[in-house]
Specification:
This protein is an alpha/beta fold. Helices cover 43% and strands 14% of the residues. The strands form 3 sheets. Strands 1-6-5-2-3-4 form a 6-stranded mixed β-sheet, with helices on both faces. The chain has a 5-stranded mixed β-sheet with strand order 7-13-12-9-10. A two-stranded antiparallel sheet has the order 8-11. The N and C termini lie far apart (62 Å).
Length: 394
């Protein structure tokens, strides 16, 4: 019961139906526990590990982890939490995005004991009769009850028919894999409950639902997401991961320790605001401990220690990194926007302009605005974006 309490307590927002799930866990039955992830970006980040770690906990208790890569549903786009339509991906884009997913998921899950499925397996051969059959089991009124759809309709923004289909098709995944339990973030609750409804329509037992909290990104406000740029990628270099973790707001540390590590809760109680209010508190030391722990989890102890030392050298001693990469580009005069774009340090020109407005770009260690930069072959140009990205342009 202690293990069940830990499984359904720490890092869990809601369990539906809790008494029934506890009964099944105590029975010794091996449950099929489903997690679906759509490959909407090219890599996974720490926000994804909250659900992956919960799936691993089920796996460690002897249950069957079923990881569904939503290569088909990614071409529709999950409307959860969206104020507008998500850009539709092509099958080729979805395929390119999911190249690293299994490798990165393997940093958390035991892939040898994981059943990995792609929902294109069953959808690629489904025709119009299937679509007519499954959509006949649901009404538009019930689907459009969800909050994000209601807000958009009220504001006069469109909700596409594809978006209405999304939760039904994600729910049907649970039919195909015979899911006993499904895990997801709190923003996925509507979709997870839809899985229960779809199973019921196909005369199958309804899956239990376990939701986990969403984790805020580096800004401390919005959920961690690649689209907002506030994420920490699992494949980022150790020093970048360490530096980003050192930049999170102090009041996020307890949540990060709780959801992203296995540190005993009684040892991190000091991080709760009520515990350190009016008492001596050293957030920097705690943040270093958090960063060291998480970098060690994904890169190993040796690289984590080296990342910590590199951070100290750069930010405490004011030294430049020792491993700044170089890149050759054609000689000539460039605008700062074009120069940063050519460097590859920032993906979009709109993001470059935003950083320029915040004095977040430096040339040879001096903040720049919109001036021109000349590369004449006599000396390399040191380009810095933010606090952690450097490159020497030749």
């Amino acid at each position: 019961m202690d293990k069940i309490d830990e499984l359904l307590g720490r890092g869990v927002e809601e369990v539906i139906e809790r008494p029934h799930l506890i009964q099944r866990l105590q029975s010794g039955q091996i449950l099929r526990v489903k997690l679906g992830i759509d490959p909407t970006a090219k890599d996974l980040h720490l926000g994804h590990t909250v659900v992956l770690r919960k799936l691993r906990q089920f796996q460690d208790l002897g249950h069957k982890a079923v990881l569904i890569i939503g290569d088909f549903t990614a071409t529709i786009g999950d409307p959860s939490g969206r104020s507008e339509q998500r850009p539709v991906l092509t099958p080729a884009q979805a395929k390119a995005n999911m190249k690293n997913y299994l490798k990165e998921a393997g940093k958390v899950l035991d892939l040898k004991k994981t059943e990995v499925r792609h929902n294109s397996e069953w959808y690629k051969d489904k025709g119009l009769p299937f679509l007519m059959d499954i959509t006949s089991k649901f009404t538009v009124a019930r689907i459009t009850e969800r909050d994000d759809f209601q807000k958009r309709i009220k504001d006069g923004r469109d909700v596409s028919m594809l978006e209405i289909l999304y939760p039904i098709l994600q729910g049907y995944d649970s039919v195909e894999v015979r899911a006993d339990v499904e895990i997801g973030g709190t923003d996925q609750k509507f979709n997870l409950l839809m899985g229960r409804k779809v199973q019921r329509r196909y005369n199958l037992p309804e899956q239990e639902v376990v939701t986990v909290p969403l984790i805020e990104g580096l800004d401390g406000v919005k959920k961690m997401s690649k689209s907002t740029g506030n994420y920490i990628g699992l494949s980022e270099p150790p020093k970048d991961m360490f530096g980003k973790l050192m930049s999170i707001p102090d009041d996020l540390m307890y949540k990060y320790f709780c959801l992203l590590t296995d540190e005993p809760l009684e040892e991190i109680q000091e991080l709760l605001p009520a515990k350190h209010f009016g008492m001596p508190f050293n957030p920097k030391a705690w943040k270093e401990k958090l960063a060291l722990k998480i970098v060690s989890m994904y890169h190993g102890d040796k690289k984590a220690v080296a990342a910590k030392q590199a951070f100290i050298n750069q930010f405490s001693k004011g030294e430049l990194p020792t491993d700044i990469p170089t890149k050759k580009i054609g000689a000539g005069e460039y605008s700062v926007v074009d120069l940063v774009a050519l460097s590859g340090l920032v993906e979009s020109k709109s993001e470059i302009r935003r950083l320029l407005g915040q004095k977040g770009i430096k040339i040879n260690q001096k903040a720049v605005d919109q001036e021109k930069v000349k590369l004449d072959g006599k000396a390399p140009v040191l380009l810095q974006v933010g606090k952690r990205k450097f490159i020497r342009l030749i």
